[in-house]
Design a protein that fits this description.
The complex is a heterodimer of chains A (377) and B (439). Chain A is built from 16 helices and 9 strands. With 377 residues, chain A is an alpha/beta fold. A 5-stranded parallel beta sheet of chain A has the order 1-3-2-4-5. In chain A, strands 7-6-8-9 form a 4-stranded parallel beta sheet, sandwiched between helices. Classes of the chains: A alpha/beta (377), B alpha/beta (439).
């Protein structure tokens, strides 16, 4: 099994290195779900190494992993523990033993290009009447809107805010409309490597054909996979927070209004821990006139995961009682913040639900940074 | 030092350099002992107790410091740096820069009246105390300093940084010996030596390279060396373990901070941390009998004489060892929380702490590359100076006539450091004898 798993990981293009593990436990000690669920990735690495993995089909906790990659970041020996989970998931995908809701999401991506079960032809419906051009007409900036902002009603407001901000800053941007297809970041992380490969094979030439020197994504998840896993040529990939920070610095994005509110910020794992984009979102928030910016305790490299990544948007997890997002919104409320700013559609969804469930609606509002920027224009 | 015998240069006056200098001097060879800091003593002078015997570090070090200060065959040059080395084995020509202390060494009595009077008194970060205390701009690093001569910190002195310090120099007015001299300039001294011993010591990694532990964010997350100063009777709390005036109830020690981690540039084991942490845990138990003490470790390495026995002792004192390297420190209410996978329980645990002590990696001195170029030395991939052969020539550098002692060659504890200091002196004596024959 050890040789098999290591070999499989290699075939899948993963850097898993079981033999390097010193069993220090930094992976599991930092794993956001290791207290609330049965998942112990350090122990899994050992089991895989000594050929003692149990029947994977019975290990529902494998789907608890959010692929926040804290384990990968903290591991001193480059074992890349999360990639063992991805490898094991890929075996389960091969044998069809996956949670039904994840199967549905994958099927929807395969058929409609999005995991939410909506029709491909409705992907750009949110943009009607907003005067957004097609990237096909040529543009300096290709804005990759993403699945959730395209279809989810709450996130559509973020997409609209983005459009308003880009237009006000005079950015020459376009979108791919109904041609835009799921980036596959989560597809790869739930182990559906075949589908991910297909998405890259079709997506890469499409994205490159636009000829834009810059691509800006709404979601850190799209940003992550485009930046690291698509090998896009002639195209710089930015998360919108990086792009906005640049526009502000260049004096192209200016504010005429104010947002007189106390704001704190939640680092998305795919932007922060995995790509070390910590300063730009804060710079944007602090540039908004009127904003009083406060920090939570667990920030930047020590930020708490919202549990929305790695396929968890489509799988409740084995512990629905103690969601990390519940903890997180209390931490945000304790700072005295009125707004919990996010920069990721998954974080938005997880944290906004948590605010409702925890009865904090009259104290704390979850807003995307883009919405705060748009409000101050 | 009117000796006809060829001389040796020892660079660095920590315990390695002190030992090497004393052995050479005792054998009758003249020694130039050059130390960058205002006093000899090095890292060992910062330590509270030493493992596994629990000797007071200062008590066993101070007599040797006094010896190098008084030895007729040792010319001690503190607050000085080697700036050029020419020649070859048997006939090196060395240039040494003496930095201005702005205090006349032969006049200063070490009374400290100047520091009391200094306008910066209590306002300058005390580096000897690892920043846990404040001193004046004119200072001795610690009371047992050798030489016991005050030095003016050019980066903190109001006069030296701004060109004026009130209407009158408070330090000058206070000095009963008229020893303060702001006209001092740096001086260059040239000496001829037959052999050189490099004993430049080590640094500790900045724990901010591991941001997950919250060092620099939480004032009650300390490094091991900071803990030494906190625990030392000569430290800022006179040896009381107090944080913000309060005794900690829960103390957590974390091994391997930055060590065994290629990402921090420290792929190696720092060798001393397992044992000094055991000593720290003992000191906490000794001073705070009711404290709950937890040590998180990856692998326990108690390899030296009396070390495993000391580890046994500390465990029996009620120090709880838990296997697993913590991954995160954060705050919950008034407490810190240390989160770790207890790998024996196979369960992630959160241990509360009022004090967290990080066993930070031993790393080469920040200026190792400059020193290597100055002396024509090679370095091993870990960054330390390279010995001529790891087994057969452990104290010879790759340049004939230049020898290595102490942690500049790699992390080591005090017994190994002293042994290497003595070995380097013995090896250097071979060269000195040959030079004598040639002369």
């Amino acid at each position: 099994m050890q040789a098999d798993i290591q070999e499989l990981a290699k075939e899948l293009g993963l850097g898993l290195d079981l033999l390097g593990c010193i069993q220090c436990g930094k992976c599991t000690g930092g794993c956001p779900v290791s207290i609330t669920t049965a998942l112990n990735v350090r122990f899994l690495v050992y089991e895989a190494l000594v050929d003692a993995l149990p029947d994977l089909g019975g290990m529902e906790e494998l789907w608890d992993c959010t692929c926040c990659f804290t384990c990968v970041e903290r591991c001193p020996k480059d074992v890349r523990p999360a990639e063992l989970i991805i490898s094991l998931r890929s075996q389960l995908v091969e044998s069809g033993k996956i949670p039904g809701t994840i199967g549905d999401a994958l099927m929807s991506i395969f058929r409609q290009g999005n995991p939410l079960g909506f029709a491909r032809e409705d992907r750009a419906a949110w943009a009607e009447g907003l005067g957004i051009k097609s990237a096909r007409e040529g543009c300096e900036v290709l804005w990759f809107v993403g699945c959730v902002p395209s279809y989810d009603m709450r996130s559509q407001a973020v997409a609209k805010a983005a459009a308003k901000v880009f237009q006000a800053a005079g950015v020459d941007f376009g979108i791919l409309g109904t041609e835009e297809t799921c980036c596959g970041n989560e597809v790869r992380r739930v182990g559906e490597m075949g589908l991910f490969e297909m998405l890259v094979e079709e997506g890469k030439p499409l994205l490159e054909s636009v000829g834009a020197p810059t691509m800006v994504t709404t979601s850190p998840h799209c940003f992550n996979t485009f930046k690291h896993e698509y090998n896009l040529e002639g195209m710089e990939v930015l998360h919108y927070t990086q792009f906005l920070a640049r526009l502000i610095e260049e004096g192209k994005l200016t504010f005429s209004g104010k947002v007189e509110r106390v704001v704190t910020y939640h680092d998305p794992c795919f932007l922060g821990k995995q790509n070390h984009v910590f300063d730009e979102p804060r710079a944007v928030l602090q540039a908004i006139p009127g904003v009083k910016f406060v920090e939570m305790d667990r920030i930047r490299e020590r930020s708490l995961c919202c549990e929305g990544g790695g396929g968890r948007m489509w799988f409740e997890g084995t512990n629905t009682e103690e969601r990390l997002a519940f903890q997180r919104v209390h931490e945000a409320a304790e700072t005295g913040a009125e707004v919990l700013a996010v920069a990721c559609p998954f974080c938005m969804s997880m944290l906004e639900d948590a605010v409702k469930v925890q009865g904090l609606e009259d104290r704390l509002k979850v807003m995307d940074i883009l919405e705060l920027v748009a409000e101050a224009m | 030092m009117a000796s006809a015998k060829p001389a040796a240069l020892v660079i660095g006056a920590g315990i390695a350099g002190i030992q090497a200098a004393l052995d050479l001097a005792d054998a009758g060879f003249p020694v130039y002992l050059v130390e960058r800091e205002p006093s000899v003593g090095g890292r060992m002078s910062q330590l509270d107790k030493t493992f596994p015997t629990l000797d007071c570090s200062s008590c066993i070090l101070t007599p040797k410091m006094v010896d190098v200060g008084q030895h007729p065959n040792i010319e001690l040059m503190t607050y000085s740096e080697v700036v050029a080395v020419e020649g070859e084995v048997g006939s090196f020509h060395v240039t040494i820069k003496k930095k201005p202390r702005y205090v006349e060494e032969d006049l200063c009595k070490g009374c400290g009246a100047c520091a009391e009077a200094c306008r910066m008194h209590g306002r300058v970060i005390d580096t000897f105390n690892q920043g846990l205390g404040k001193r004046a701009a004119i200072y001795v690093p610690f009371p047992q300093a050798v030489p016991l001569v005050y030095t003016i910190d050019p980066n903190a002195c109001i006069y030296l940084t701004r060109g004026v310090c009130g209407k009158t120099f408070k330090c000058k007015d206070a000095c009963p010996a008229d020893a303060i001299n702001f006209d001092q300039k740096e001086q260059f001294v040239e000496v001829d030596v037959a052999a050189i011993i490099v004993a430049t010591g080590f640094d500790l990694i900045d724990p901010r390279t591991k941001p997950e532990f919250g060092y620099g964010v939480y004032p009650n997350v300390l490094t091991g060396l900071e803990f030494e100063r906190l625990s030392s009777a000569s430290g800022p709390t006179a040896g009381k373990i107090l944080l913000n005036g309060k005794e900690p109830k829960d103390v957590v020690f974390i091994h391997c901070v930055g060590s065994r981690d290629p990402h921090t540039g420290v792929p190696y084991c720092s060798r001393i941390c397992c044992m000094y942490t055991a000593k720290h845990a003992h000191l906490v138990r000794d001073k705070l009998p009711d404290a709950r003490i937890t040590v998180f470790y990856i692998d326990m390495r108690a390899f030296g004489k009396g070390y495993e026995e000391f580890y046994d002792r500390v465990k029996h004192e009620g120090v709880i060892y838990r296997r697993g390297e913590p991954s995160e420190v954060f705050k919950r209410g008034d407490k810190l929380v240390v989160r770790a996978d207890d790998t024996l329980l196979r369960r992630t645990v959160e241990v509360e702490a009022d004090l967290v002590v990080l066993a930070t990696a031993v790393v080469p001195r920040a200026d190792t590359e400059a020193v290597a170029r100055l002396l024509g030395l090679e370095r091993t991939p870990d960054g330390f100076f390279k010995e001529a052969h790891p087994k057969h020539c452990p104290v010879e550098s790759t340049r004939p006539g230049v020898f290595l002692a102490g942690c500049c060659q790699g992390p080591k504890d005090i017994p190994d450091t002293v042994a290497q200091g003595k070995a380097a002196a013995a090896a250097a004596m071979g060269v000195l004898h040959q030079a004598m024959g040639n002369g």
